[in-house]
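Task card 7
Instruction: Convert sequence to structure tokens.
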Amino acid sequence: MMAEWVQIALRTLLAVVVLFVLTKLLGKRQISQLSMFEYITGITIGSLAAYISLDMDANWYLGIVAIIVWVGVSIGIEFIELKSKAVRDIVDGKGRIMIKEGKILEDNLKKERLTVDELLEQLRKKSVFKVADVEFAIMEPSGDINVLLKKENQPLTAKHLGIKVGPEREMQAVIMDGNPMDEPLATLGFNREWLNVELEKLGVAIENIFLGQVDEYGQLYVDLFDDKLQVPQPQKKATLYATLKKCEADLELFSLSTKETAAKQMYEQCSKNLLTVIRELEPILIR
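Output:
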């Protein structure tokens, strides 16, 4: 006869494996934003897992059957929700407007059983401290409140100013805990030799680097284990921009200083072409 503590240990391990597999089937929503039904499902599955681990009854395995049924029902409802908005509205609920054009909708506040203090707290979490600044605020089915500020209160962006900005791509971590990472380097088209050259420019040994990242333009940024040490930021783009501007200014100077018509036209044309290139590269070089 197996000892009780051994049985409990084995059942607990079995419950962990079953829960892990079934949670993977349920998807990431179970660990991020839960609907009301998913919340109930999570509590029930947790209770059943505890029953499997601790109940010494001979029919403990029925708890696994119950968990599988719960998960099956949950997956089935999620599948139906993907196909039907009406079912989504019933199971997950609908968003409700809390603020419109700077005015709090008290009736909707009562329907969600939300106090003014709680609403203001949610607004502060979105860095909004004045209700009159809000154009639109809605409570999502998950309980989160999303806010749209009025036009005059929205922060300025490059688009508002008519400035073209270069695309921002994912940074690649090429050093972690003092160790180089070959796969991200290869993704960027670099190798360890290139990395060593860049580290020599910064005057930093790789074993002293906690995290090293490279952007799509080949600039290496490092964070050291010792937070007191300061590493200069890469200046490749700034140097290139300054060099291009100097070349364009030199061409203009050459065109003004020469008396030959053909040479003057050549310098002027080259200056215009280089200026066009600089304007196209500015969104990338100036950040």
